[in-house]
Structure formats: structure tokens, C-alpha cells
Amino acid sequence: MQFDAELLLLAMAPVFLACIGWEAWHLRRTRPGAQLYSWRDTFCNAALALMQQAADKLAWLAIIPVYAFFYDHYRVTTWPATWVSFVVLFVAQDLLYYVFHRCSHRVRWLWAAHVVHHSSERMNFSTAFRQSLMYPIAGMWLFWIPLAVLGFPPKQIVAIVLINLGFQFFVHTQAVGKLGWLEYVFNTPSIHRVHHARNEHYIDRNYAGVLVIWDRLFGSYVEEDPHNAPLYGIVEPLHTYNPLKATFHEWASMAADFVSVRGWRNKLRALFAPPAWAADYHARRAASASAGVAASGGDTGIEENHTAAFQTPRRP
Predict the structure, then answer these.
(1) Where are the domains of the chain?
(2) What CA dihedral angle connects 242, 259, 198 and 244, to 10 degrees?
(3) Residue 255, strand partner residues
(4) What's the alpha-carbon Rg for the chain, to the nearest Å?
């Protein structure tokens, strides 16, 4: 089956905007004191979306030929344009999205791009637009190469990725509760609220794109608990609505950590360890600095143990 996902998503743009308008009105009416929308946060999300879209347009020009190379030289079969091939492509890409998404929470290099999506302390439809222009640099496109090897043409790969991401717009809301039996098969707002939470019980869970079966199969599923409301945002809060700072803050932090730690093993950890390594490292440095100030009466010239392997266990 042939389809043009870009035209489909363009046609869906009014639907996305209508959903944002309805949700903002509905939440203001039903939860007036919650302040679940903020003009500054929403405009930041919109700016990030425009930046990401522009970067993606350029990135696809370089990436599509890579998919074409693998498709032309290494594909194991050729799929006819049928509904069967579409279903196979859809399921295969959704599984690969799960792998990419889980890696993005476990590898700091990937997290440096993905953290943008999680850095807002609000959860609403506009949060779906909060994306990073750095995904091509982080290497998101590498995860779709197996689709070319399986025999799917590059344009179909791009299309199915866009369709998957388009579906995920609808799970970024607090206005929809649990959806019964759908929770066993599909990603839903309740499931995705857990994913955006920074609560200890929820963090690094529910990586689903469209199908939640992968979370259930690979042990990363956690149900939303009505007695444990999700707290949104990241462990090290951003505290800015500047889209450029939102885009590059983790890259800058990663570069600073890479320079400051001693030993190549720690330098590699600064780039590729789970994000919890960085949070623990920063906490230890802050504690050491505070202890140094207290001990010296204000002198911050302390010697830090940069060779220690700061590894905080985190759930997979």
C-alpha cells in the first residue's frame, strides 16, 4: 500500500490544533486551579516543533540515501504494496521505536536529544510538539535501517515513522482517563502519563509508541496509580522557556562532564552511561562543593574524586 504520510499529517494539523484548543478550554473549566496550560510553555513547545521540523527536512535529504543503499544492496525480500506489507511494516517499526525509545532513556547521548520532550513540567497536547532538532545528530535514524534490510523502500520507512509519531500526539493529555481493554494493546493517555512522570515508581517505564504489547512483553510496563499522581518533568529541572536552552542544555552538560571527569572510562560514562549517572555525579559534586565551603569558611578550592565510577542503579 502506497501512502503519503506528510500530506496526511498536514491534513491532520487542524485536528491537532483543535485538540489543543478543546483541551485548554476543558481543563480550565474542569480544573481551574491546576494551570495545566501556560502561554510561555505552549509557545516554547511550538517553537521547538518548528525547529525540529526544519531540521528533519534537511536531515531526511541525507538519511534517505542511506536507507536506499541498504534497500538496494542488502534487502532480504521485496514486499508488494498491499495491506499485509503495511501491517508488517507498522508492527516492525513500532517494535524498533520501542527499542529506540528505551535506549533514549538508558544512553545519555540519545537522552541529550530526547530530554527536550520530557523537560516540560506540564502534560498536555502541546507537549507532543516539544521535540528536538538534535535527533539526527543523536542517531535516531539508525534504528530504522533494519526496515530497509527487511525490504521496505525508504519513502515508506519515512512515512511509517511519521505516522507513528503522529499517533503519539493523542496520548499527551490529562483530559482522558483510562480506556478499558485498549490499555492492553495500545498506548493510551494513562500509559503515557506514567512515561512522562519523574516519580520513582514511574521513571523509565512505558516506552510504547503505538502498541503497548512491547512494554508488557519486555517488563517495562507500569500502570498509572490513582493514589500516586504523576509529577512531570525531569530529575534535574530545566527552569526555562527558551527553546534554544531546552534544545542544547543536556549537550552542554554532557560536554562539561566529559571534560571534568578523569579517566577514559568515566569520560565514556559521561557520554553513554544512563542519565542517572550524570544526575548522581552532579549531586556528588554539589555535595562536595557544599562540604568544602563549610569546611573552609567559604573557600571552594576542593579536590574532587573524578575517577570514581558514579553509577546509580536505575530500573531498566
Answers:
(1) 5-244, 261-296
(2) 10
(3) none
(4) 21
Query: Which cell numbers in the block locate residue 113?
Result: 536529544
d(CA 136, CA 290): 39
Give the other-Cβ count within 10 Å of 191's Cβ: 24
Pairwise CA distance, residues 266 & 224, whole Å:
36
Ramachandran assignment for 31, one of left (phi > 0), alpha (psi -120 to 50 degrees), beta (any other): beta
Contact (CB, 8 A) for 279 and 312 = yes
Cβ(306)–Cβ(260) below 8 Å = yes
Coil, strand or helix at 197: strand
Max Cα distance, the chain (Å) = 74
Each residue of 185-202: pLDDT tens digit?
999 999 999 999 999 999
Is the C-alpha dihedral spanning 303, 245, 252, 206 positive or negative? Answer: positive
Give the separation between CA 120 and CA 243, rounded to whole angstroms. 11
Q: What pLDDT was estimated at residue 2?
A: 56
- pTM, entire model: 0.90
